[in-house]
Amino acid sequence: MQAINKLVGAYLVGISIAVAVFFIINVFLVNSINVLAVWHVLDVLMLVGLALGMGFNYVHKQRASGREPGDPVTHAYLEANLVFYATAVVTILFLHNWFAFLVTGDVSQGDNHTAWVIWAVVDTALPIVLGVTGCRLWREASNT
């Protein structure tokens, strides 16, 4: 299990770095490469990362949820819930925009600038939540 956690952790950190870096620099590459083709590949990698993140964060949330009503909220409980629900929000936003793109085939989705704002939120929040998850998985696998 430690090897799987390290492998998934490395994948999540890697995709986090790739998305963050490409989100920052893609504006400079518009005239030299097909930026949308790169985003199409990253979208699939992001989908896999979000599925892994949801699964591993759900398991982590379940392990940290062993508390009785009235017990104080622990750091581990708060962290596990925050990361799980943040991953869920990013996943929902990602899937909404990605499915809209797949159905319409229109990158700009008409004059709907909201889609671009949602992509900006996803491409900013995804590296954070998946990066945190990946680092936690790597750290837990290294400590056992």
Brief digest:
It contains 4 helices and no strands. The protein has helices at 2-29, 35-64, 75-104, 113-143.
What does this structure look like?
The chain has 144 residues and is mainly α. The model has no long low-confidence stretch (mean pLDDT 91).
Number of helices: 4
Beta fraction? under 5%
Give the terminus-to-terminus CA distance. Answer: 10 Å
Give the radius of gyration.
Answer: 17 Å
Main sheet overview: none
Detail the poorly predicted runs.
Answer: none
Record the SSE blueprint.
Blueprint: H1 2-29, H2 35-64, H3 75-104, H4 113-143
Helix pairs in contact: 1-2, 1-4, 2-3, 2-4, 3-4
What tags apply to this protein structure?
about 140 residues; globular; about 85% helix; mainly alpha
